[in-house]
Amino acid sequence: MYDCKKLFALAKKQGIDAIELVESADRSASISLFNGQVDKTNVSSNVSRMVRALKNGKMAYVDFENPNEDERKLVETLVNNIDSIDSEEESFIYPGDDKYPEINNSCDDFSSIPTEKKIELLKTLEADCKKNDKRIVAVPMCMYNEVEESLRMINSLGLDICKTVSYAYCGVQLVAKDGEDTNADFEMSAGRFFKDLVAEEVAAKAVKKVTDKLGAKPCKSGEYKVIIDSETMSELFGAFSVLFCGDMAMRKLCNYNEKIGEKIFSDKISVIDDPLHPDSPSSQPFDDEGVACRTKTVVENGVLKMILHNLKTAKYFNAKSTGNGFKKGGSVGTMPCNMYIKGGEAPLDDMIKSMGEGVLITSVSGLHAGVNPTTGDFSLQSSGFMIRNGEKAEPLTLIVLSGNFNDVMKDVVCVGNDLKVDYKGVCTPSIEFGAIKVSGL
To answer: How many other β-carbons are positioned within 10 Å of the β-carbon of residue 195?
Structure first.
């Protein structure tokens, strides 16, 4: 850790009201396999430092790497940068909370696991994919990656906190062919322990995912009862999770802040934001502004209870930060952390059986272009299956699922029991909707 005592003392002499040092360290390692042989390996590590200073409500930043960086040079740069700021927007350095939560960060030291064991995992994964189904004609990618990150924040107001995150994941891309029909797909698994990565399970899911869609065709256009499976619903809900963020409301891009206390979804929907969730590798004891994280009910039985805030949006709305100030693109914004829709009691197979007739959506694409959080509208190229007589029937492709997020979330028929809170950051169970437009033939 950079010795900041001299830095803080010098900053005080120069009239700086508060100064903060953030030091982050990360290490990553990756291995890729092709045709049973190691194709690429990479190990990288990095330590970065950022110091920011506050004077008369204005904030300046300086990034540096040298652990012996001259304090006078840093302070001089900060003061000059502050003096050049014209914006009247108020900034903050947080003095810290009285208490921070303890989270279960137990994990493997992945760097101590022999490389041979990681390669063997990939060889098993690739081999199982090839032998599980003769229609698998190629394995373009088979990869393993591990990430270890640590961060410490210390400032002149008394804050001194640190956190670590460590996880690994493996993934495989497959190409399946049956006659003239070809399909490709990807599957991955992540965990805080190496034992969580089970090659046989990943291979089985990957093979089923890619082969189930062989022979897929569009269905007739119309409004259908629709089930969106857990993985796909997580992606869709994740694209609209910004609606709960204070910076969207502050920029007048959504009006959820005006609907607190109102029913916005079906009473079957409850939304939790839980940065402390024990099953997620992404759990955090505090956000990137030093505010303690906590578990929050955002929507309860369809009623909006709150929106998420960082320090800036909390000040704007005369509220308190919810501990959701996380960096995105280099600056701090409001972001969910382990946000999920609470699971119901119905297994997916039972949902399909009770639906009788409809459509099961198992993948969507074009989320960046096909989703408009401001209006709630979405139009997404999708694939999945027809449901006939309560069973999964012929596969579907080249269909477009379209509607309005706020409307469909009021028309929920059933919530599945297959919620899995994991590395994605936003997760949901499978959900059945009364009617959504599906465009095909």
So the answer is: 8
Burial track 80-96 (b if 16+ CB lie within 10 A, e otherwise): ebbeeeeeeeebbbbeb
Q: What burial class does residue 37 get, using C-beta atoms within 10 Å of its C-beta: 0-12 exposed, 13-18 middle, 19+ buried? A: exposed
pLDDT per residue over 98-110, tens digit each? 999 998 778 889 9
How far apart are the C-alpha atoms of 18 and 206, rounded to whole Å? Answer: 52
**Quick one: 251 exposed, middle or buried, by C-beta within 10 A (0-12, 13-18, 19+)?**
exposed
- Dist. CA 311–CA 52, nearest whole Å: 15
Task: Assess contact for 51 and 61: CB atoms under 8 A.
Answer: yes
Task: Report d(CA 200, CA 369) in Å as an integer.
Answer: 35
3-state SS assignment for residue 275: coil
Sign for the pseudo-dihedral over CA of 216, 222, 224, 229 = positive
**Residue located via tokens 């089970």:** 198
**Domains of the chain with CATH codes:** 5-83 (3.30.2290.10), 110-147+161-211 (3.30.2290.10), 222-238+343-439 (no CATH), 241-340 (no CATH)
| End-to-end CA gap in the chain | 62
Of 157, 151, 161, the closest CA to residue 8 belongs to: 157
Ramachandran assignment for 44, one of left (phi > 0), alpha (psi -120 to 50 degrees), beta (any other) = beta
Phi, psi (deg, nearest 5) at residue 200: -65, -35
The dihedral through the CA atoms of 87, 89, 90, 93 has a sign that is negative
- 201-206 CB contacts, 8 Å cutoff, 24+ apart: 202/125, 202/170, 202/171, 202/172, 203/124, 203/125, 203/128, 203/129, 203/132, 203/172, 204/128, 204/132, 206/129, 206/172, 206/174
Which range, of 19-28, 299-308, 321-330, 367-376, averages the lowest pLDDT? 321-330
Whole-number CA gyration radius for the chain: 25
Q: What is the pLDDT of residue 1?
A: 61
- Global confidence as pTM: 0.93
Q: For residues 7 and 73, what is the distance between their CA atoms, to the nearest angstrom?
A: 10
C-beta separation of 334 from 324 below 8 A: yes
